[in-house]
Amino acid sequence: MVVRNHYGIKCISAWTRAYCLEFLICALLAILAALAHKPQDAPAFYESSGTRKMAALLQRIYKEQDWKTDPNKVAVRAQYYKEMLQANPDLRSELKIRQALAECELLAGDTADAIEHL
Q1: What is the pLDDT of residue 60?
Q2: Residue 34 and residue 11: Cα distance in Å, rounded?
Q3: Do residues 55 and 78 lie in contact, with contact meaning Cβ atoms separated by under 8 Å?
Q4: Which residues lie below 8 Å from residue 70, measured CB to CB, with a gap of 6+?
Q5: What is the distance of C-alpha 83 from the center of its chain?
Q6: CA 18 → CA 26, 30, 56, 90, 111, distances in Å?
Q7: 8 A C-beta contact, residue 98 and residue 118
Q8: I need a labelling partner for 102 at 20 to 30 A (CA). Which of 43, 61, 94, 111 fits?
């Protein structure tokens, strides 16, 4: 409701502002309640049984793939090179291992360790 104040200027009444604020608070609470009530175990609406089977198959293939031949498993390969360094190889082998380790750590996203091992 628009009223005039004691200066003659049109303004919104205090009751109207209170109702607007109350409506906004209720709407916000309703949205938060709807987001909090989302079931955690329910699959996404676009996930069919075929999609779930394919995801399980791809995860199994990834787990069964040998890290020595899989270019995506650089973190495992870096761990292997770290273990080789602990065996105290000769200087020439150590330099090759350190270079390979640094490359693996860079690919894995661990820049600080890559610099340290060089």
Answers
A1: 93
A2: 35
A3: no
A4: 62
A5: 29
A6: 12, 18, 54, 79, 55
A7: yes
A8: 61
